[in-house]
Amino acid sequence: MSLTYNPRNNNLLEIFITCFIMGITLTISIITLLLGTSSLSNKYIWLVIYSLLLHGFFILEFINSSLYQYNSVTSKSFLIYGNKGNKQFWYLQLLTIWEYLLLRLGKLNVIVKYFPNIGNWSWSWWWWTILQIFGLLISLLGLFIRHLAMKTCGLSFNHYLITPDPSPSKNQYENKLITHGIYKYVRHPSYLGFWLYCIGIQLMLLNIGNLTLTIYILNWFFKIRIEYEENQLINKYGDKYINYQQTTKRKILIPLI
C-alpha cells in the first residue's frame, strides 16, 4: 500500500455529502444546546450533549484517519456506515435514546422500582448531575485516548482486521510494531478509548439497562477480537511481539478482558 494518498481511491462526492449532512445535524444540536436548554436541570439537555458526543466521535475518526492513516483513509472512515458492526452500533444508539426517553416519561417500571429517584429531577438532582458530568468526562477521556492511539500508531493503525503477511513489508512504516507512547502502557489503547467513550455515554444519560448491556457486549466483542488480533500479531512479529506482551502486560485495562 502506498504512502501517498490517492483521491481516486475515494468517492469525494460521498465524503462531501456525509460532511454536509453531519454539518446540518451538528448545527441543529449546537443551536438546540444554546437556545433550547436553560440549565443542567433540564432533563433533555443531556440528550443534546449525547448528540454532540456522537458527532464528535465520527468527526474525530475521519480526521485522525486523514492525518495519520492517510494511505488507507476512505469515505467509510467516519465509521457511520459501510463497516462491519455498524448496524449493531446503530441498534445500540436507538436503544440508548429509547431508554432515556422512556425513563424520563416514567415508563420503565423495572428500573424505576430499583432506582425510584433516577428520573426525579426535583430530588437531589445535583447528585445525578455529578454522576452525569462524570460520565461525560469519561466519554471525553475515551475520545482522547483513542485519538492518541491512532496518532501514535500512525500508518500501522487500521480499522479492519487483516491477516498479516509474515514476510517483510516493502513499507517499513506500515510494518512497524508500535511499542512507545500510550502503547507502552496498554497494548490496545484504541479499544480502551472506545470502551470508555461508550460507557461514559450511558453513565451520562443514567441508562442503567443500556450501561449493563453495553459493558456485556463490548467486553464480549473485545475479548474475541483481541485474542484473534494478538495471535495474528504473534504470527507476524514473532518473539518481538511476545516480548512486548511481557513488558506491557495490560491488554486494555478493562476487567475480564
What is the residue-averaged pLDDT?
Answer: 86
Q: Give the DSSP E fraction (strand runs of 2 or more residues).
A: under 5%
Q: For the record, what CATH class applies?
A: Mainly Alpha
Q: How much helicity do the residues have?
A: 55-70%
Low-pLDDT runs: none
- Please state the structural category: mainly alpha
By CATH, the architecture is named: Up-down Bundle
CATH topology: Four Helix Bundle (Hemerythrin (Met), subunit A)
Largest sheet properties: none
Oligomer status: single chain
Q: What general form does the structure show?
A: globular
Cα end-to-end separation: 32 Å
The radius of gyration over CA amounts to: 20 Å
The total count of helices amounts to: 8
Element-by-element helix/strand order: HHHHHHHH
Number of domains: 1
DSSP, total strands: 0
Structure description:
The structure is a single chain. This protein is mainly alpha-helical. The protein has helices at 12-35, 45-68, 86-104, 109-114, 125-153, 189-205, 208-237, 239-247. Helix 1 packs antiparallel against helix 2 (45-68) and helix 7 packs across helix 8. It is globular. The mean pLDDT is 86. One of its GO terms (cellular component) is endoplasmic reticulum membrane. Its main location: endoplasmic reticulum. Its EC number is 2.1.1.100. The chain crosses the membrane at residues 12-38, 44-68, 89-105, 125-145, 194-222.
Concise synopsis of the structure shown:
By secondary structure, this protein is mainly alpha-helical. The chain has eight helices and no strands.
